[in-house]
Amino acid sequence: MDPITVAAVGLLVMFLFMLLGMPISFAMLLAGVLGNAVLLSLPAATHLLSTNVWEQASSYGLSVIPLFVLMGQFAYRAGITERLYDAAYKWVGRLPGGLAGTTVVACAGFSAICGSNSATTATMGTIALPEMRRYGYDRALSTGAVAVGGTLGVVIPPSVVLIVIAVQTEQSLLRLFLAAIIPGLILTLLFLLTIVAICLRKPELGPLGPATTLKEKLVSLSGVIETLILFVLVIGGLYVGWFTPTEAAAAGAFGALVIGLVRRRLSLQKIVQSAAETLRISAMVVLLITGAVLFGRFLTVSRLPFELAGWAASLPVSPGFILLVVLLIYLIGGCLMDALGFLVVTIPIFYPLAAALGYDPIWYTILLTIITTMGAVTPPVGVNVFIVNGLAPDIPIHTIFRGVAYFMLAYVLCIAAMWIFPGTVLYLPQVLLG
Question: How far apart are CA 195 and CA 395, in angstroms?
Fold first, then answer.
């Protein structure tokens, strides 16, 4: 059978397994083994399976993932999130829709030490939703703000998604982290402006919070210092060459632990809980990477990604049109699957298109990441929406989706800015790393 046909059948088999309810990692593993067995041989496929699982599980490079996750777990249980929320509230609470704006800003801050979409949504939602209920905020606006704010966990470093993509595509993790900072800030600002615009038009949706003095604002900044210390320790340490990515993650986790112990917020029980949750999340991510690498090797043997890239480059249409089609695929895929899962599945197929179409791979990766996060709050699945619904089960799903709809223009404007002005992505890596 023609290798391209085998690859196409392998993709169909993988998606069929997913539709039947099989976890993404196992679907990729099984499809990869079957595909390699057809294209190579059964002994070769089983050998690849055994060596691949061991290589990924024992990979030093992947140890960065549990360490960054552990940093976020320590930060959450050390009470850093509450202090972040309080500081954000003191500064933006008097804006129209101030509590919703506070939620978005606090999500951005927590994303800088968490790296997880679902963890950011669940953590900040636990704090923000009761506050917005207390002040009579519109249910759609309040839940929508939490859902879209959570997506910043995918974009703002140290994003686990960017770490996984860096491993898959062998790109510089520091370059990806630096490239994501400005788009993450732009998206945060656009979310905040969206809330202000909505509440200027309909003030009853988001009442103003109580006024705070300048002294209270300045005092509240102490709650931001801890987050800044951890962020600068990790990203700054990487930049000046003090740490490798794994060492930076370890330093961040240790720093969060020290902050929690100094503030007497981390008991032995909370440390054990942090470690247990880190193990659960890390095992899931590493297994996902293992499946993706094995499936990616199957696609490489079939040469499907390279044939697809060559075919796309030869089409009598502009590269921009092809990129638009790819973005639509990622938007739809993000609607149906978790952002990390969809990116891991599709990066081996679509990443070679960047070189074929003449796009910078760093810019291309960040663009695909943001369009996929947009899918995380879009029907029919919208992972973040269901997380928020779990936190507020009395609010119907359709109400949360209605709240998310307020922010769709912000996503579109951010993606358009990145497309029209690539410097929004490439400026920091080029200036700081050359």
Answer: 20
**In 3D, which of 197, 86, 192, 208 has the Cα closest to residue 148?**
192
Amino acid identity of residue 283, one-letter, is A
Angle between helices 268-302 and 304-314 (to 10 degrees): 70
DSSP-assigned states of every residue in 372-425? HHHHTTSTTT-HHHHHHHHH-TTS-HHHHHHHHHTTHHHHHHHHHHHHH-THHH
Quick: pLDDT tens for 82-105: 888 888 888 888 889 889 999 999
Residue 357: enclosing H or E segment and its boundaries?
helix 352-357
Q: What is the longest distance spanned by two Cα atoms in the chain?
A: 73
Q: Kindly list the distances between the CA atom of residue 291 and the CA atoms of 76, 96, 393, in Å, as whole numbers in the listed order.
A: 30, 46, 34
Q: Name the pTM for this structure.
A: 0.84
N- to C-terminal Cα separation, the chain: 47
Residue 175: alpha-carbon gap to chain centroid: 16
H or E stretch covering 70:
helix 64-77
CA–CA separation, 193 and 202 (whole Å): 14
Comparing CA positions, the residue from 83, 64, 92, 239 lying closest to residue 160 is 64
pLDDT digits (tens, 9 = 90+) for 264-318: 888 899 999 999 988 888 888 888 778 877 888 888 888 877 787 777 777 788 8
Q: Report d(CA 292, CA 294) in Å as an integer.
A: 6
**Nearest 5°: phi and psi at 95?**
-75, 155
- Identify which of 116, 131, 8, 56 has the alpha carbon closest to the alpha carbon of residue 283: 56
DSSP string, 147-159: HHHHTHHHHSSS-
For residue 423, the Cα-to-chain-centroid distance in whole angstroms is 21
- What span, in angstroms and rounded, lies between the C-alpha atoms of 16 and 392? 33
How remote is the C-alpha of 140 from its chain's centroid? 23
Domain ranges within the chain, ordered by starting residue = 1-58+290-302, 59-266+303-433
**Spatial distance between the Cα atoms of 418 and 318, rounded to a whole number of angstroms:** 18
Share of the chain above pLDDT 70, in %: 99
Taking the C-alpha atoms of residue 342 and residue 371, their distance in angstroms, rounded to an integer, is: 12
What amino acid occupies position 429? P
Q: Which two three-digit tokens encode residue 317?
A: 């249409």
63: DSSP letter:
G
Whether residue 111 contacts residue 68, with contact meaning beta carbons closer than 8 Å, is answered with no
Rounded Cα distance between 270 and 267, Å, is: 5
Sign of CA dihedral 66, 68, 72, 75: positive
